[in-house]
Design a protein that fits this description.
The protein has about 290 residues and is mostly helical. It contains 8 helices and 5 strands. About 50% of the residues lie in helices and about 5% in strands. The strands form 2 sheets. The chain has a 3-stranded antiparallel β-sheet with strand order 3-5-4. Strands 1-2 form a two-stranded antiparallel ribbon. The longest helix is centred in the middle third of the chain and has 58 residues. The mean pLDDT is about 75.
Amino acid sequence: MGKAEVGSAKHLSNQMKQKGLTRLRWYCQLCNKPCRDENAFKMHSQSPSHTRKALEAGSQFKETQEDFSKDFLRNFVSLLKTSHGEKEIQINRFYQEVIAERHHTHLNATKWHSLTDFAKHLGREGICRVTEKEDDGLFVAWIDDSPEATRRRETLRRKELQDKGDEEREHMLLQAQIERAQKDAKARGAAGDEEDDDAETRALRRQEGEKITDEEQPAETTQGAKPVSLKFGVKPQPKNIFKNAFSGAPKKVMAAPPKKMSEAERIMKEELEKRRAREARGGPPNKRQRL
């Protein structure tokens, strides 16, 4: 039975049935053909085109396997670079994104027997940074070794070294200033102690037979008490103990609080002030207009 014509209803029906992934055992990697069931895969494997490609691949097995391996590696790294960049991701989760394409190169057609062997190859070749975690397994992160990225990393490294050098230089200068200040403080303290010791030594050491002069004698700090003069001719006046102590003080006059004005008085006062101000200006008295 021949193939359905392109654009026909049968062709569109077949295309709709072939959407999505098929089983791995019913996929022919040599012909890049997915089969829907076991009977379709059996019929395809007996076809002349598949037989011819199988004979060619058998005669050049190493070259064919190497081609599939390079294709798988190229697709894997390209998708990792474009979708995640240099971020770290769990390799099993990312492998699900790789095989989401219908016509992807299968891992069993390559020279790596498992995904772990492929991750080890990525780490050995320096293509990706591979780390293993106890709970989550292997993680991969793409290493950007392009000239632009290399120059960018070198610039960042130099900047970090320069900043670190500046910080170390400032720290060294600050440490030197602290040490210099400590030495100066110790030197001043030692000089002060020596001066005190010299003064005490000069005061205590006296030659035999040396007398203390008036200049060396301590000055009198307290003045003598004045003699009390006693007057016998004047009789002291007796003090009146019953006299009020506050009688001689001036009396404070308490001002009376202002009288609170009612509302009518306030209005009359305002009208009177307005009338006086109008008369002082020479204007006529205020008259109400008749309606």
